[in-house]
Amino acid sequence: MFDDIRSKRVVFVAHCFLNQNSISDGTAVYPAAFRVMVDFFLNADIGIVQMPCPELYCLGIDRGNIHGAESPVIVENTRIRTEMKKDSSDIELTRLADYVVRQILEYDKYGFEVVGIIGANRSPNCGIDTTSDHNEEISGMGLFMEKISYQLSREDISIPMIGIKGKDNIQEKLQQLMDGEL
Questions:
Q1: For the chain, what percentages of helix, strand and coil (3-state, to nearest 5) are there?
Q2: Rg, Å, the chain Cα set
Q3: Looking at the whole model, is its pTM more than 0.85?
Q4: What is the separation, in whole angstroms, between the first and last Cα of the chain?
Q5: Rounded to whole angstroms, how far apart are CA atoms 118 and 144?
Q6: If we measure between CA atoms, which residue out of 24, 16, 27, 33 comes closest to residue 59?
Q7: Which InterPro entries match (predicted)?
Q8: What pLDDT does 41 receive?
């Protein structure tokens, strides 16, 4: 099965890397997408799976605060994190994580390689190495990535996870992921 030309290799990326229009107000670093990331994976014949944006889904494009861009990023991110911890958002967050993990399990079942999961550091939901809480950027995962990581561990699946923030040496970090150095 699947003996056609497809590479059978995929990477899962945070929604905002492919759609900067979805990111919270005042935080976009590119007009549309992280082109370096897109080009990197397409040149390596790796399919790109865009994970859903939990904040857009649960709180809306304004994240429930039309004046969010007027606050420092980490302050607004802490407010978003607090909103995402509320029961109604947490239930939806779990559903979204289930959706991502089901896709990963399906790829795994048919012998596809999931080369990694790439999150957005500093994000209250999609951070891998850092997240925002208590009006600070702190070490740790965002809420959404924590749920995905937990569910994958319950399934006994290990996938490298890396975080990228802004324009920080994207090419180098992606190459480290591919070389298994992370």
A1: 45, 15, 40
A2: 16
A3: yes
A4: 32
A5: 12
A6: 24
A7: TudS-rel (IPR054648)
A8: 97
What's the token pair of residue 58?
A: 């649960």
E strand residue ranges, the chain: 9-13, 47-50, 113-120, 130-133, 136-139, 161-164
**pLDDT, position 89:** 95
Integer Cα distance of 137 and 130 in angstroms: 6
- Reply yes or no on whether the pLDDT at 182 is more than 80: no
What tokens were used for 53? 């944006």
Cβ atoms of residues 126 and 117 within 8 Å: no
Burial 151-182 (b: 16+ CB within 10 A, else e): bbeeeeeebbbbbbbeeeebeebbeebbeeee
Half-sphere exposure of 31 (CA within 13 A, CB side): 0
Tokens encoding 112: 């596809």
Burial of 58 (0-12, 13-18, 19+ CB in 10 A): buried
Q: Could you write out the DSSP letters of every residue in 138-177? A: EES--HHHHHHHHHHHHTT----EEEE-TTSSHHHHHHHH
